[in-house]
Amino acid sequence: MDLVEKLDILADAAKYDVACTSSGLSRGSKKGQLGNSMGAGCCHSFTPDGRCITLLKVLQSNVCIYDCAYCVSRASNDVRRATFTPEELSDLTIGFYRRNYIEGLFLSSGVIRNPDYTTELMIKTLKLLREQHGFRGYIHAKTVPGTSPELVDQLGHLADRLSVNLELPSQKSLALLCPQKNKQQLIQPMRQIRDNIAQDAESRGLARKKNTYVPSQRPKTRSRAFAPAGQSTQMIIGATPESDFQILNLSQALYKSLALKRVFFSAYLPVSGDARLPQNHAVQLNREHRLYQADWLLRFYQFDVSEIISQDAPNLELDLDPKAGWAINHLDVFPVEVNTAPLELLLRVPGIGPRGARLIIRARRTNCLRENELRKLGIAYKRARYFITCNGKYMGAGVQFDPATIRAQIAEPINGGKHGARAAKTLPGQMSLFGDEVGRASIGVGDKRSGQQTALSNQQSASQAKPALPQATPIDGLFGWQNALQGPNREKVPA
C-alpha cells in the first residue's frame, strides 16, 4: 500500500474526532528550525463539508484491538486497515507544512497490540519531527488509556496539547458500548497530565527566580515544557440516553478537578451497525450546538451549571440558547443600565459577550452609550435591546416586557433562518476528506441525494424511534464519573 492510499484511509478515519482546536500558545520561529505556533492558529484550508483543516488530522493506525460499538475502526468492523511508520508520517507532515497546507499535526491512533506499543510509535513519530526535522509547529497528540506513566511523560514533552477521550458520559454506557474500557483507566492519565503540567510550571517558575546574588547562567539547551497548551477531552452525545443535565455537570466537574482547557461534544453519527446503538437516526446538530453554548457560559461568562439547567428540565431548549433562556427566566434582574452596570451583570445580558462587556466599561468612561455606540462596539443589539436601558430609556420599545413576548422575539426558528436551516439537518454520516460522498467509511451510503433522502426519513421517524439503551439514572450519569474524579487516588494540584 502506497503513502497516498494510507493517507486516504487514515485521514478519513480521523475525521470523527472533533477534539481539534487552535493551539492556545505562541511560539516563535528559531534559526535552524522549522515552523512556529501561533495562539489563534491559521485557518486557510477546508474540507468539502466546510471544516477547517489547518492541522493534518490523521491516525497513526486504524488497526485496533478494542471493539467499541460506535467506532468505525473497531476490531469487528470490516474496513481497510493501514498503519503509518514513524518515518512516513513525519515526512508527510513536513512535506505538507512546506507546501503551506497545514499549520500543525493532530495525531491519534487505534490501539495496536497494546497501549504502550501504540504510544511508542507516536513518540517515535514526534521525536523525528522535533529532533530530526526541527519542527516547532503545533502538535496535538491523543493519549491512549492504559499507557504507562513513563510513556505519557515522554509524549507530553513532545506534544503541545494532550487529550484523553472520555467517549461516553456515564460508566453504565461505557460498560455497555466499550466493554474493554473503564472510567478509572480513562481518568488516570488525565490526572497524571494535570499533575505533570502543574509540576512543570512550578519548576520553571522557580528556575526563573533569582535566589542568589551569584549571576545565574542559562543552560544551552532547555527541555521542552510538558503539554504547554493543556489537555482536553471529548464525549459522544446521543449514542446513549444521558441528558444534557448529566453531561454539563460532568463537564463542570472535569474543569474544576482536572483543569481541562476544553470539553468537546461530538453528535452521534450512525457509522457502524450494532444492536446496542440507536440506528438509522443521527443526533440533531442543534443539540451539540446548545451544549457548546452552555459550555462557553461555564468557561467565560461566570455561570454555574445549576443556573443553566436543572434536573426537573434535564435537556436544553433547542429553539433558545441557554443564556437567553436564563435571562427570560430571570426578568426580575433586567433591564440593566449599560452605563452603570457592573461587568458581572453585563455578562448576563444576551447579545453581550466578554469582549463586548469590557469594551462597554471602557467606552462609558468618556461617553454616554446609546444604540449607535453599542452597535459600533459590536454588540448584538437586536438581542440585547430587550434587556437593557441606555441613560434610563428602555431600548425594547414597543415590546411588552414579559417572558412570553420576549421569547417570541428572540427564539430561533427551527425551520427557517440561517442557523435554523442547519439545525434541522441530521446527516447519516460525515462527508469524506477526499470525496463528496456522505459517510463512506463504513455505512456505504451513496451520493448526496441518497444522503439527503436518508436524513429526511430520519427526521420523520425520529419521534417514533426508541433508544436502544435503558434510561440511565441521574446518579449514574451525574455522579458516576465525579466519584472517579474524587476517588482515593486523587492528588491535589501543586501550588
Q: Largest sheet at a glance?
A: 6 strands, parallel
Our estimate of the beta-strand percent is 5-15%
Strand order of the largest sheet: 1-2-3-4-5-6
Helix and strand pattern: HEHEHEHEHHEHEHHHEHHHHEEHHHH
The tally of domains stands at 3
Structural class: alpha/beta
3D shape: globular
- The helix tally amounts to 18
Uncertain spans = 39-48, 414-479, 490-495
What percent of residues adopt helix (DSSP H or I)? 25-40%
Radius of gyration: 24 Å
User: How many strands?
Assistant: 9
| Distance from first to last alpha carbon | 51 Å
| Average pLDDT score | 78
Characterization of the model:
This protein has 495 residues and is α/β, with parallel strands linked by helices. It folds into three domains: 1-163, no CATH class; 164-200 and 226-278 and 284-313 and 415-425 and 467-495, no CATH class; 322-410, no CATH class. The protein is 39% helix and 8% strand. It has 18 helices and nine strands. The chain has helices spanning 3-13, 86-98, 115-132, 149-158, 171-177, 183-208, 244-258, 285-300, 305-308, 322-329, 343-346, 354-363, 371-376, 381-384, 403-410, 418-423, 448-461, 474-485, and strands at 55-59, 104-108, 138-142, 161-163, 231-237, 262-267, 336-337, 388-390, 393-394. The strands form two sheets. It has a six-stranded parallel sheet with strand order 1-2-3-4-5-6. α3 (115-132) runs parallel beside α4 and α4 crosses α6. The longest helix has 26 residues, at 183-208. It is globular. 41% of the residues are buried.
